[in-house]
Amino acid sequence: MIHDALLIAGKDLRLELRSRVALNQVLPFALLVLVLFAFALDPDKSVLTEATPGLYWIAVLFSALLALQRSFAIESTDGNRDALRLSGLDPAGIFLGKVLAVSVQLVVLEALLGVGVVVLYTSRIDGWVLLAVTSVIATASIAAAGTLYGVVAAGLRVRETLLPLLLLPVLAPVLIGSTRAFEAALNGSPSEGWPWVGLMSIFASLYVVAGIFGFGPLLEES
Amino acid sequence: MSGNWGYVVAAWVIVFGGLGAYSIRTIVRGRSISKQVRPEKRRWS
Amino acid sequence: MTTQLDAATEGLDSTGSRATRVLGVLAIFGLAALALFGLVLSPPDASQGEVVRILYVHVPSATFAYIGCFLTTIGSAMFLWRGSSWWELVAYASAEIATVFTAIVLVTGMIWGRPTWGVYWVWDARLTSTSMLLLLLLGYLAVRRLPADHDVRTKRAAIIGLLLVPNVIIVRQSVQWWRTLHQKPTLLANGVGAKIEGLMLFSLFVGFIAIGLVFAWLLIHRFRLAWLEDQLDDAGLDAAIAERRAEGDVS
Questions:
Q1: Which InterPro entries match (chain A) (predicted)?
Q2: Which chains does chain C touch, 3 or more C-beta pairs < 8 A?
Q3: Which residues of C touch A160 (CB under 8 A)?
């Protein structure tokens, strides 16, 4: 299972290194969202700085949607889905590999987006440990739930509109949790943030388990 | 106090109206689809 | 046996049966009793006034909306585990009914909130998580009704149905923390949790029975409708033959 996961993750990441879709399209989109927030909210007032954690995670969520669409688009061309199914790879491994690849891309994106926030919104960064742990757990949550719901929507004509409808309500706790944890870290009271990390860990484990068991039947059917 | 009866009536109308409308829709669709399915496929009644 | 069944179903093209008719009559009596107790016999609340009467329909609707969600998750699990299409239909039927109930709960909750809190919407934990529940249910229904192969949409919908209750629990938990960490839950102090007794408690009890009967009646009808839809889906040819036979009978 682990071997298969690494195989799939390696394949997806190599594909990304060659095509640079996430780097050339998703990342600029995320930065664009940050700029749009500045247009919508007056940057001279303190609104932008106060709302930074929320705006940051909204930008991450929207970018994650694009990254996930991309992750399943590369499987849908040239009958790749059939090839994947017939490859004899463990479905759980395929799931974990996809999650891993999306997570790696999101972590890179989050780091660059973080630099963007610091530069554009002149935010002050504090509480590094909590920020890092929150990012990792939230990313794992988004990638696990996103990959599971991504395969639910994959291969359908309505997939572009269906995935946000399915995924965003499910990710509401992750948005709330990661935003609160970031706020706690930036306000210098990290003890308020850790319960949220715990909640997101439960969320992530739930979706990893659901994906490990649910991916097989989902790949089989279509 | 009497002003609040408006809220009460509105809520009850929505509950009864909503459930009623949904029931009627279910029944009507059931009737129209029943006609298209062979009776022995219907395992009730 | 089959001829008996045929005779019984002749001229009766509906999702009804003797059982549902009895249940339906009971439900109507229940609703009448609910109106009598909830609107006429029970006294206004000391602190809430007449507005408390909304709760006699609001609270039971909320309870049965949750029961519908549980049935959806259980049905989806049984379908994925055992491949039982009977449970799959239970999941689908109860998801749709739960959606209707959740919408009713949201609207009546807002109407109750207006005189109680002065606004239709507050970012109260209960209201917020209920609105998320409605969106989750709409997602399930969207997948279940996809214009795709029957196997595809039932299996994919079942995955979503299976995760429905865990999602609701996590959403509720997160929203509750979110609201209570930053402000005290004063809004709930005179809310649904306030204690009630006597005729008011009895009215609420009548509400549970009446709404429960409506729920059961709807569930049976919706289940049969879903079964019929599947029959049409699976065997379009069969239906065409039946239609032609029916035409032959008429002429």
A1: Cyt_c_biogenesis_CcmB, Cyt_c_CcmB_bac
A2: A, B
A3: none
